Amino acid sequence: MNRSSCIALMAVAGLGLGGVLNVAGAGTDQMVADANKSIAVATSAVEAARVAIENGKQLLATIPEDSPMLSEVAEMLPAVKDNWTLAVSALEGAKESASKISSASTPEIAQDYKLLATVNAGVALSGATVVQTGMLFVDAVAQNKSEALDIIRVAMQDSLAATSQVQFNYENVKTLIAAKYSK
Amino acid sequence: MKKRHYSRGLFACVVALAASIQVYAVDMAAASGALADVSVSSSQASAALAAAASSGDVEAIAVARQRSADVESAVAEARDAHAAMEHAVAAGNEDAAAAAAEDLAAAQEKASNAVSGNVPEPTPQGAEQAAVDTEPGLPNIYDVPWQSDGLRSLYQGLFSATWSASAQGGAGFSERDATPE
To answer: Which residues does chain A have within 8 Å of residue B61's beta carbon, measured at their own beta carbons?
Structure first.
């Protein structure tokens, strides 16, 4: 390869790289928008869960101490509490990941931050739905909605199982991304 | 000179291989993210069912139940697609991995639509039924003439007449009227 063809090749490569970087810039804005959309949905769900907890506290006081359902409520509340903590921390994690998308050094890293933000927002959203479903159970017990109880109980179990799956997959995403950069 | 070309070629191959490994890694991370998203839909569907049950609205419960069942079906499809994708990536089968990724994306969309209650576009079979149901005055282009009710009743009439005229049909030739009058 002579000098002139080498220079021509470098020029073409430089133009190509410039084009890729321009596309990456436009793509980053879209990534930020997508991540923020997921975070907005999760934030709304967490706020709804917060309101449900406030209502649930008052409803809990109305359940008679000799109610046969009280023990079941007491068993369920720790799961609700755990999911509330999870939802709040996952939402913070999602916001943190989203804030790093724009400043990422490469489009690939930006894409990984977007994925982390989106999946973390999903963890927050599913955690918040568990809290809301749990509070619906408390409401059904307090107001003696016996027909609704069976459906809500099953829905709560399904919701807990789904949330575990969301967490499991989030851990998978983290592991795969970490493995990529530790090579 | 030739040796230098070979080494450059080797370098290019190594770079391409590294890039393809990274693409697989990204795809699997994105696939796990998609699977997480489908599970989020499942959680939302359960919450919607619980809310419907709490309201006591029987119709709302039925709708929420159906949506929840649809989401669970999508979850099963997504899990299968994810497992297929894992196998394909492990085996280095790029085409199978791409096909599984498409299946996973389809399941993700199905779950999302089921939760929000979006009715998908009618399939050709659905369109056939829709043409029958909603456009009674117009000819149904999906209708197969030899399977139509009119022809079926004509054939039935012809068969009845033939049967009546036969020896087994009860009414023999002698018992028939000579003329229609």
So the answer is: 151
pLDDT digits (tens, 9 = 90+) for B137-168: 665 655 555 556 666 676 677 777 776 666 66
Selected residue of A108, A135, A151, A174 to mutate for chain B interface (largest B Cβ count, 10 A): A151
A6 interfacial to chain B (CB closer than 8 Å): no
How far apart, in Å, do the first and last CA atoms of chain A sit? 34
Alpha helices by DSSP H, listed for B56-167, are 58-91, 94-116, 124-134, 149-165
Q: Which residue of B has its CA nearest to A110?
A: B26
> Cβ contacts (< 8 Å) between A129 and chain B: which residues?
43-44, 46-47
Asked if residue A31 lies in contact with residue A101, where contact means CB atoms within 8 angstroms, the answer is yes
Domain holding A158, by residue range, is 27-181
- Count up the domains in chain A and report the number: 1
pLDDT tens across B53-84, in order?
A: 999 999 999 999 999 999 999 999 999 999 99
The complex's ipTM works out to 0.83
DSSP state of B147: G
B21 DSSP 8-state letter:
H
Nearest to A136 among B29, B44, B51 (CB): B51
Domain ranges of chain B: 2-120, 136-181
Token digits of residue A43: 């934030």
In a domain, A138, yes or no: yes
Distance to chain A for B92, nearest Cα, Å: 17
> Is A58 within the bounds of a domain?
yes
DSSP conformational letter for A168: H
Whole-model pTM: value is: 0.70
Q: Do residue B56 and residue A148 have CB atoms under 8 angstroms apart?
A: yes
Among chain B residues, CA nearest to A165: B39
- Domain of A121: which CATH number? 1.20.120
Counting Cβ atoms within 10 Å, is residue A75 exposed (0-12), middle (13-18) or buried (19+)? Answer: exposed
CB B71 within 8 A of CB B41: yes
